[in-house]
Specification:
With about 300 residues, the protein is of the alpha/beta class. Helices cover about 35% and strands about 20% of the residues.
């Protein structure tokens, strides 16, 4: 049987990038922002989660947010690189008050039984998954009925400035464009993916922030320390030409620099939330079941518009 799945990312290369980031000393401002938002979202949920899965989060940021919430019991961290020196460095041990286990697991092939967890969280990991719909289905199955998923992944506006500058420079210098920045998820598609995966009460929303750097090179160094450099299977294996890099920096500065000379970089974080279905959850009303007209509720006069079949 031939699989219809299309692989976009070189997962081995991505793991190598994460290991290199650990050696360099990771840049954590983006993952820390996601963890802070995770804390806020958990604070709005009035329940305790006994068994929690932290799926693929590249540092201990999500685990710290879970611990500070006071709403979780045992936390299992699933990391494809579990046990490696890089993983031990990034997931430094926290307080002893929170039970935690680490298992080697790929986001694309979860080794857990159906209905294992009350809560699954993931921060800035799922954007590197080749089969995101399949991963969401596995997460939903791993949840107990009425279990919650909260996941953050990089969105489509992320690094739009770098993508545009590289494309313009390569077209000008080399007469063609190669994929230099990975594609990111589109917010409009995420809600549909949650529904397709079988989640109840699905919500997708976005958080945008702008970081400023002394130069595009400073941005690229930061991306290297995030483990977020190019891991596309179709990436060019040729060394980047100096002329192309120089022209990219010029275009970036011309288009995206502030008056003080520093350049802007956009980061978009898409948040996904959804519940494993349960009979106690609220259900949307059936169309036509309303007992009161909207015009009456608003105290307004209803004006009937002509339809195409009116004569």
């Amino acid at each position: 049987m031939i699989s219809s799945r299309i692989n976009i990312f070189d997962r081995t290369c991505q793991r190598q990038h994460r290991a290199r980031a650990a050696v360099l000393g990771p840049s954590t401002f983006l993952i820390d922002r996601a963890a802070e938002d995770l804390s806020d979202r958990l604070a709005a949920v009035l329940r305790h989660f006994d068994y929690v899965l932290d799926l693929g989060t590249p540092t201990d940021a999500a685990r710290r947010a879970l611990a500070s919430s006071g709403k979780v019991g045992t936390v299992i961290s699933a990391d494809v690189s579990a046990g490696s020196p890089a993983s031990r460095h990034l997931h430094a041990s926290g307080g002893a008050s929170q039970a935690r286990l680490v298992v080697a697991a790929d986001e694309e092939a979860l080794p857990f039984h159906d209905g294992s967890f009350d809560l699954v969280v993931s921060a800035l990991a799922l954007q590197f998954v080749n089969d995101l719909p399949g991963a969401l289905v596995q997460i939903r199955r791993a949840l107990k009925p009425d279990g919650l998923m909260l996941a953050a992944l990089a969105g489509g506006e992320t690094l739009t400035e770098l993508r545009q500058a590289f494309a313009a420079a390569e077209a000008e210098i080399e007469g063609g464009v190669s994929p230099r920045v990975i594609p990111f998820a589109d917010l409009r598609e995420m809600g549909a993916l949650l529904q397709r995966a079988g989640f109840a009460l699905p919500v997708a929303d976005t958080d945008r922030l702008t970081a400023r750097y002394a130069s595009p090179i400073s941005l690229m160094h930061d991306l290297r320390r995030m483990g977020a450099t190019n891991a596309l299977l179709e990436r060019s294996r040729r060394p980047l030409r100096r002329a192309t890099l120089t022209r990219m920096m010029q275009i970036y500065g011309e288009r995206f620099a502030d008056c003080d000379g520093r350049v802007r970089a956009t980061f978009e974080i898409i948040w996904l939330s959804g519940w494993a279905p349960h009979e106690t959850q609220q259900k949307p009303l059936a169309p036509g079941s309303a007992r009161r007209r909207l015009a009456d509720a608003l105290g307004a006069k209803e004006i009937r518009l002509p339809r195409d079949d009116d004569h």
